[in-house]
Design brief:
About 30% of the residues lie in helices and about 15% in strands. It contains 23 helices and 23 strands. It has a seven-stranded mixed beta barrel with strand order 15-18-19-20-23-22-21. The radius of gyration is 27 Å and the shape is globular.
């Protein structure tokens, strides 16, 4: 067990060097601090409650008129688990397996991006890092923009007004995500930034859209209570809904004039959002640079209109008095935020919001509910479709199996995320999923998102590996959701190629580098490949949960031996692969060596990443779903 220690410190905002103040009034809370343990491979961690007056626990139940029963219950639980420190009692020295020390004096504000949430960028280094990204070769920290093209300015007319776009121009700024919008401090901090900007005469320079989409309805009440929503509205941050939006690609279409300029001039446009994920192609197809930031910083970048700015040295804009306005001029102090929080975040607000949760709404309540105990599948529905997971299932498990003469469906490099694999965001107009919907009379305006159609396996299978930023070695690094159908040499969508293999009764495998399946642990990142006919994934390493999910869908996860990968072994993906696994599950052991041979005469040894006996049981049953059903029937 790891216990975290935080040294207290104070930061002051003096002159133009205001960035340290950001630490204390963005999101340095328990969740932020706990992320520090990830670097030490810690999956779970806890914090001691050090509060002899119980005030911290009372704050957790502030929405209750009488919090005492909840406080007593929480204290009893914490004491029973030795997680409560009462300094009025004798303290016994505790022993932990290891200690991590977090010095708050060393904590500094940051954003992350432009393509992965774990690519942290200190705010003071943002401008330098941005120019490095323009210079670097195409990759997680590179766009390979030639030096002579980096200062290019594309001029155009935007709603009748002259406008311009450059590399780094912010076209989407969004206050979104469940983790940030449930924190009143950062939400009110964003509103105060907007208020100060309005008072100084600044207006957001975001070229296309700003928006606020809190996951929690009481956020709206907080803003309206103190009259702060009008300032966010004035800067374009209207509340557009409650739920997942920009984080998962539901921002909608970018204005046609802006989209045309981005495409025709190869502009690396930017999005800044207070979300959790910014993997390639996730936020919007036209924003190649996507940065995660706290809600107040989202507003600041929207005001600047670009990520190519040094907040310490460069002005954000010009005020109504003609003077330059700097970051320090719009950034609220910790005291200002605390004052607004104390006056705005009130118990009645939570009570009135949550007491209505189970009551539903008129549209939901008026839905007719069939009396049947079994669900009646509607054949014409493009939202819910009976999945094929249990078709032709018998009570006897199919048993373990190897793979014989399989083709390579896709050949990847490192860090293929679940966003590359799983259907997410908008349904592209030229995708196999779009064709499926159009063939069934669904107009493009009604496509909705993959997330909304996750109950239809036909749509989701067509959206698997449909990410527009997919890089497949079978196509020599060409970017896009295509692959090579090896027998014919045709370049097809991944779905069409997979169906062609299935029609010919050919199994397929996937070759990959390190960190295959990193990112959000999505079920469809395993369901989708299974429906495409993928029987195994051979990678340098797997993300922990995704590897488990693959096993759960009956897909064999294999790891190259240390120091080896597809490139070092001379594998191109044009070979046919045979994986030597016994058909007797009792002869397979967790982590055993497995021989893989190709039709070109190559052979190599991999590690079978069945990590537990339970996972072998899933594999023997063809996956966790039939395993569960068989066991339920037996009961």
């Amino acid at each position: 067990m790891v216990r975290q220690i935080a040294k207290d410190s104070k930061h002051h905002c003096e002159g133009n060097n205001c960035l340290k103040e950001i630490v204390s009034n963005t999101r340095l809370d328990l969740q932020s601090v706990s992320s520090n343990t990830r670097c030490s491979q810690v999956i779970y961690n806890f914090f001691d409650f050090i509060d002899e007056k119980e005030e911290a626990i009372k704050k957790m139940f502030k929405q209750h008129e009488n919090p005492q029963p909840q406080v007593a219950m929480m204290e009893a639980y914490l004491r029973a688990n030795k997680m409560f420190v009462d300094h009025s009692e004798h303290q016994q020295e505790r022993v932990y397996s290891s200690y991590l020390e977090l010095d708050l004096e060393a904590v500094e504000p940051c954003v992350s991006g432009p393509k992965r949430p774990h690519d942290r960028v200190a705010l003071k280094e943002m401008k330098v890092d941005w120019h490095s990204c323009l210079d670097n070769k195409v990759g997680f920290k590179g766009f390979a923009i030639p030096k002579e093209a980096q200062d290019k300015v594309a001029e155009f007319s935007f709603h009748g007004q002259p406008a311009e776009l450059k590399h780094g121009s912010v076209v989407i700024a969004a206050i979104t995500s469940c983790t940030n919008t449930s924190n009143p401090s950062v939400m009110l901090g964003a509103a105060l930034v907007a208020k100060k900007a309005c008072e100084l005469g600044l207006q957001c320079q975001t070229m296309d859209k700003n928006k606020s989409c809190p996951r929690i309805r009481w956020c709206y009440k907080i803003f309206t209570l103190d009259g702060l929503q009008k300032y966010l509205n004035q800067q374009g941050f209207h509340i557009v809904g409650y739920g997942c939006t920009t984080c998962i690609g539901n921002s909608g279409e970018i204005d046609e004039s802006v989209a045309s300029v981005i495409t025709e001039n190869d502009i690396v446009a930017a999005a800044v959002l207070s979300g959790n994920r910014n993997f390639e192609g996730r936020v919007h197809p036209l924003t190649r640079a996507n940065y995660l930031a706290s809600p107040p910083l989202v507003v600041a970048y929207a005001l600047a209109g670009t990520v190519d700015i040094d907040f310490e040295k460069e002005p954000i804009g010009t005020g109504k008095d003609g003077k330059s306005v700097y970051f320090k001029d719009i950034w609220p102090s910790t005291e200002e935020i605390v004052e607004v929080v104390q006056s705005s975040v009130l118990p009645d607000m939570f009570k009135s919001t949550y007491e209505a949760i189970t009551k539903g709404n008129s549209m939901w309540n008026e839905l007719s509910v069939p009396a049947n105990t079994l669900y009646s599948w509607e054949a014409k529905s493009t939202y819910i479709h009976e999945p094929p997971y249990f078709k032709n299932m018998t009570m006897d498990p199919p048993g373990a199996h190897g793979v014989k003469d399989a083709y390579c469906l896709l050949n990847f490099g490192d860090s293929i995320t679940t966003d590359h694999i799983s259907p997410a965001g908008n349904i592209h107009k030229d995708s196999p999923a779009a064709k499926y919907l159009l063939d069934r009379g669904v107009e493009r305006k009604d496509f909705n998102s993959y997330g909304s159609r996750r109950g239809n396996d036909e749509v989701m299978a067509r959206g698997t590996f449909a990410n527009i930023r997919l890089v497949n070695k079978l196509l020599n690094g060409e970017v896009g959701p295509k692959t090579l159908h090896v027998p014919t040499g045709e370049k097809l969508s991944v779905f069409d190629a997979a169906m062609k293999y299935k029609a010919a009764n050919h199994d397929t495998i996937i070759l990959a580098g390190a960190e295959y399946g990193s990112g959000s642990s999505r079920d469809w990142a395993a369901k989708g490949p299974m429906l495409l006919g993928v029987k195994a994934v051979i990678a340098k390493s797997f993300e922990r949960i995704h590897r488990s999910n693959l096993v759960g869908m009956g897909i064999v996860p294999l790891c190259f031996k240390p120091g080896e990968d597809a490139d070092t072994l001379g594998l191109t993906g044009h070979e046919r692969y045979t994986i030597d696994l016994s058909s007797n599950i009792d002869e397979i052991k967790p982590g055993q060596d497995v021989k893989v041979t190709t039709d070109t005469g190559k052979s190599f040894i991999c590690t079978a990443r069945f990590d537990t006996e339970v996972e072998l049981a899933y594999f023997n049953h063809g996956g966790i779903l039939p395993y569960v059903i068989r066991n339920l029937i037996k009961q």
